[in-house]
Amino acid sequence: MINLEIPEKLETLVYQAHMAALHVLRPISRKYDSAEHSYPTELDGLAELVAQANAAQAGLASVPETGSGPAAPAGGAASRAGNVNGRNLASLVGLIEMCWGDVGLMLTMPRQGLGQAAISAVATPEQLKRFGGRWAAMAITEPEAGSDSAAIRTTAVLDGDEYVLNGEKIYVTSGDRAELIVVWATLDRDAGRGAIKSFVVERDNPGLRLDRLEHKLGIRASDTANFVLENCRVPKENLLGSPEITTAREGFAGAMQTFDNTRPMIAGMAVGVARAALERTRELLEAAEVTIDYDRPLHSLPAAVAEFIGMEADWEAARLLAMRAAWMSDNRMPNTVAASMAKAKAGRMATDVTLRCVALCGALGFGEDELLEKWARDAKILDIFEGTQQIQQLVIARQLLDRRSTELK
User: Which residue has the higher pLDDT, 102 or 151?
Assistant: First the structure.
């Protein structure tokens, strides 16, 4: 049975992550929000400490021994060893603390990236050995394929011992700074989603051309790159997973397993930034002599207090859903529905809570003297990437009703 308190063995991890957020990320948060596309050199020392420490003690993205992203769920029945508070839960609680500090800076932390989750999910042991420990971004979205990953048009054609990739990728988080790019491409456009595979491309591959860096509403410390792939040749060994997959549909299912790992982590990021906004709002309300009283009925409280308590309840619901999804993965339980529920709830909660905190604090919340307005801008992306609200609802409905996406339109 899951206990939704922080496990005792992870308390040191949480403390370390919080200290890093407090003393490294918060002091430079506004600086790199203003200096978009400037690399935060202050993170190098912190990244080196993370690289030298065991992932379960670092408070950042914990990984298999040979990888660098959240551990992939094994699926199937719960672990026979009993309750496991493992690396997915460790990743989650660390991310919450780091995003309490700054979401954009956390995303641009060297050797952290969503590509590691894709590698961990479907890579062979040999691939894990080659690519583990390296900074990997993930390139899925295209101009004509956003939420619908099955509409990908980037092609991969086998030519001797290499695949030749052609296409365009947009909104690649940390794409310009990462060492590796995990590119989703199709082996046959006519075969639909079943032909989609993921390939590891070296960032300095001459066939991978940086087109531009995006200017964004939030997470401005994190670079978001657009790429063009022009006859980009990669060794056939860089196709993630085994080439002996019996059906093409299984290949797409393997690639999509990445999201079961990463969506609870995005939920954790949303929980972190929303907690930051709630804590600062509480401080400003108390400074204005507004008392948060939990002993009185909501209808008898001042409107600002009642609204604040309601936001706290919404935040707690999102936190518990995120922890449950990560715990299920650690205990080898299929968590597709739980991951989408957590991501949907937390993304919406963070957007709503941070904007309402700005409103509650009035001019203070809207000005740049406080980080509240920045947190509201940063939170919006957490409701969009890794699948929008609509996509999460579609995933949940498809799983619960046992129907295909086309049957739910």
Answer: 102
